[in-house]
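Quick question, first post here. What does this chain look like in 3D?
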Amino acid sequence: MKSTYDALNQAMVEWKAVDETREPARATSLRNNVWALAYELYYEKYAQKPVSHWTGDNWVMDTILKSMEEYDPAIGHFSGYLKEKLDFREKDQWRKVQREKQRSVQDDPDQILAVLEDQHAEDPFSNMEFQDLFEELLVMILNFKMRQSGHGNNESRLKWYRIFFTEDMTLTMKHSPHILRRERDTINAMDLEYLDYYMEQVCRTQMQVRRSPMKMYCQVVPGRKECEGEVPLPIPADVSLSYLEKRENRRFSAGTRSNQKKVYEEEKRSIRQ
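> Answer (accepted):
Ran it through. C-alpha cells below.
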C-alpha cells in the first residue's frame, strides 16, 4: 500500500516533469495535489509547534511553497527535502525569538526568570549566564537550609520562598517559549498545593502549566466583589494570602507578605551580582 509520503514524492516528480506551456491544466492539477499532500503531512505538525505561538504559522506555508518551487528531483525524495527545509526554518524562527528575548532581558534585568535554556539556539552557550542565574535560584529553593542562616532559617521563610518561586515559574512557563533544562527539579521546588489552588487543571509539567487556564480570580479570592476573569499574571498578592488562609488556616497581613517578598527579591538580586 502506497504511503502518503510515497504519493507526495511521486506527485512532485510528475509535476516537475510536465510541460506547463503545453499542459497547463494538468500542471495546475499536479501542483495542487503536491500542495495538498505536503499540507496534510507537514502543516499541522509544524504549525502547532511552540515557536509558532510566538511567530505565527505563516513561515510553515511559505516554506512549503518555496520548497515546491525550488526542489530539483535530482537531489532525492521531496518528502525528505521538505522536512529538512522545515526543520531549518523552525530553528531559524527559534533564533529570532531567542534574540528578542535576550534583548528584552538586557533592557530589564528583572525578567531574568523568563530566559531559560533554548535547545534550538544557534549558540547553546550564548545565554549561559542566564541559565546559571536561573539554576542558582532553583538551588536556593532546593537547598534552602544550606543557604540561609540566623532568623531566616525557618519553615515560615521556606514556605514564602516556595510560594514566590511558584508564582515566578508560573509566569515563566506561561509566557516563555524556552524549554526547562531541569523540569523535574523545578516542579519539585514549587509549592504544588499552591499551584493547584489557582490553576484550573492539575499541572506537573511545564507544558501542562502552559496549556491550563487559570481559575477565576473571584474563585480563589472569594472576597472580591466582581469576577473579572482568570487570575492575572503576574499573580496578585491577595491570591497567596487567600490560599494560606483557606487551605492552611493561617492569616497574614499584606505587610507581612510584602516583607517576605522583599527578602526573596534581595536574594535574587544577590544572585545576579
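The two ends are 63 Å apart (CA to CA).
The chain is about 65% helix and 0% strand.
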